[in-house]
Amino acid sequence: MSVIGIVLLGSVPFLFNGMNFDTASYLTGIEEVISKLLHPSEIMYQAPDFINRPIFPLVWDFFIYSSTILFSAFTIAVVLALIVALIIFLLPESWIRKIRVSLFMLDSFPDVLVAIAVQFFVIWFFQKTNFLLFQVVSINGAKTYTLPIICLVILPFMMCLRIILLTIGEEYSKQYVETARSIGLKKFRILWRHVLPNALVSVFHHTKTILWFMLSNLFIIEYIFNIKGIMYFMMLTKKPEIFTVCMLLMFVPMFLFFTAGRLITSKWEGESI
């Protein structure tokens, strides 16, 4: 159903004839996109030298570049959020409440503002010290990873941390925690051995939303840092069939990851699928 949805979305340009809807053209466009997807080696794009070339295997370079940035940032955000959440829950309750409020406020910062602020900081630091912390943009084919990953990590990290804190807080209100406390178990042992494993199942289901949020931010990151990634390639070509191929390349790995995760967490919870 998701693949069908991507095909229908990729065919939307055929739906419009000026300012009017053209249903017949849309249906023809869907048929054309599906036909080209069945023969991917024949899908062409116009290179900067105005020569038509097949998108494969070139599109793999764009896909790998974007995927490396996206999934590296996602992994760092989740792991870092888990570590920070464990530290926070060892603090006094009054501190935890203040941190939750702060995270809610910081979570509302625009993505573009964060990326530009980090870029300006690196440039300002270079001007003051003549030492370049990270490559600011991709130039002349040189690929930059560190700064885009940092910018892509910040907001998802805060989102994930807020979700983990909320989930762990809900687990702490359950009866088994009171039972563990009554038999003398230490706070960290309860958190690590009992609360966290139960909370991770719920956190996993929220990470799907976070990853899709990061995918939408990836377009902004690629534009700001002049990254020649999958989003750049889609905007460069602007063809329905190429848009559809690129979206499928990004969707399928995510689908497989979350399907595998759902199978694992369902078995973990003792559910049957």
TrEMBL record:
Key words of the record: Cell membrane, Membrane, Transmembrane, Transmembrane helix, Transport
Keyword presence, Transport: yes
PROSITE patterns per the UniProt record, alphabetical: ABC_TM1
What lineage, starting at the top, does this entry show? Bacteria, Bacillati, Bacillota, Bacilli, Bacillales
List GO BP terms, alphabetically: transmembrane transport
The domain of life for this entry's organism is Bacteria
Indicate whether Transmembrane helix appears among the record's keywords.
yes
The ABC transmembrane type-1 domain, residue ranges = 63-260
The membrane-spanning stretches of this chain are 62-91, 103-126, 146-169, 212-235, 242-264
The protein's matches in InterPro entries, at most eight in alphabetical order, are given as:
MetI-like (IPR000515), MetI-like_sf (IPR035906)
Pfam families assigned:
BPD_transp_1 (PF00528)
Its recorded name reads ABC transmembrane type-1 domain-containing protein
Origin organism of this chain? Fictibacillus aquaticus
Cellular location(s): Cell membrane
Family, according to the entry, reads as follows:
Belongs to the binding-protein-dependent transport system permease family.
Q: How would you describe this protein's topology in the membrane?
A: Multi-pass membrane protein
Main localization of the protein described in the UniProt heading: membrane
